[in-house]
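# step 3/5: fold
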Amino acid sequence: MWWERQPAGSNPFKPNVAGRPIENIELEAGDFLIWDSLLAHGVRPNRSLDKVRMAQYISMFPADVDNERLRQARITTWAEQTHPIGDPFPGDPRQFEKKNFEVAKLNPLGRRLLGLDLWSSPDKTN
């Protein structure tokens, strides 16, 4: 994996990419880009004078029922309509999502993925 080749003490959010090819992906308004988070990726600065660039980041993985602290943090993020805590998640400084939307209503699968409801058995996948 690319990260294993980084020098000890490297910042995982600002890896040394010297000598590595960087591919810029051109997108048009309304385009949808999906990638695996294991792929090194980043964004370029918005250098336009009068255009806004917005992105929606979606991370999808089932809650870890063995990590109660993380499970509760996920539930709190959903219930309080806030952003995950951490360096790569600065959140919207306007707190737009808190002002304009109801808390998402989850179906049974959504409740299990979030961690509100636990899976009935460790090997169940639906």
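# step 4/5: annotate
The chain has three helices and no strands.
# step 5/5: archive (pending)
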